[in-house]
Amino acid sequence: MGVLIEPLNTSPALLFEPDASLVIELVAPDLEFEDADIEGLAAGANRILVGGEVLQFARATPLGDRRWQLRGLLRGRGGTEDAAANGHSAQTLAILLDDNLVALDPVEVPVSEMTRIAAIGTGDSDAVIAPVTNVGLSRRPPSPVHGRIKIASDQSRELSWSRRARGQWRWENSVDVPLVEEREAYIVGYGSAETPFTAWSVEEPCLQLSKEACDDLLARFGAADLWVKQIGTFDQSSPLLLDRLM
Hints:
Elements: E1 2-4, E2 17-26, H1 38-42, E3 47-50, E4 53-64, E5 67-77, H2 81-86, E6 93-96, E7 116-119, E8 128-131, E9 145-151, E10 157-162, E11 186-191, E12 196-202, E13 206-209, H3 211-221, E14 224-230, E15 240-245
Antiparallel strand pairs: 1-2, 1-6, 2-5, 3-4, 3-6, 4-5, 7-8, 9-10, 10-13, 11-12, 11-14, 14-15
């Protein structure tokens, strides 16, 4: 565990970034990182949580004074592309995701922003109390991907996309990922993702809009974005931009 020494730039989280790096200051001198090759990264090695983003690194170089440079990054892992797109400031908490993590019983430790964790070490006189961060992050469905637009000869539009699923990170050929959620459902909105002008609920990964419907949207609300979110059992995904009517 440690903190970023300098800001980490934004990333589209699409490809392996061999020259990208970050510097972390660890909390203790006996902690260390190890290198991993591409095969190891593909198998899930060297995952680290920085703020609300899961990323992976290929090479680790000690710099002294508990500081390490991690180079060769895979950003936005596990559906955290939105956090990668925002970047991270210096002093952001960073935690290695390995077998040393301890699962907490949700019955004893409720999933809530009000939950606090107290920890005390051997020989310590006072406990350290900290809030739970990234509440519900692992229960939020990943945003849909591969947005597509097909414009017909009559100027109607077919919007479509591909869904992903929590915990299902491998793309198997010709096989849909498991649904995981209780049902397949999406919300397609026009305007701001927080407060859309209007929205449609659909149960399959596509939406048809006639030319008349598009003209009506422009006349009533002006130019704006069309986006989609997956509706999960516990939360909604981040939006995927599909189109912009102008």
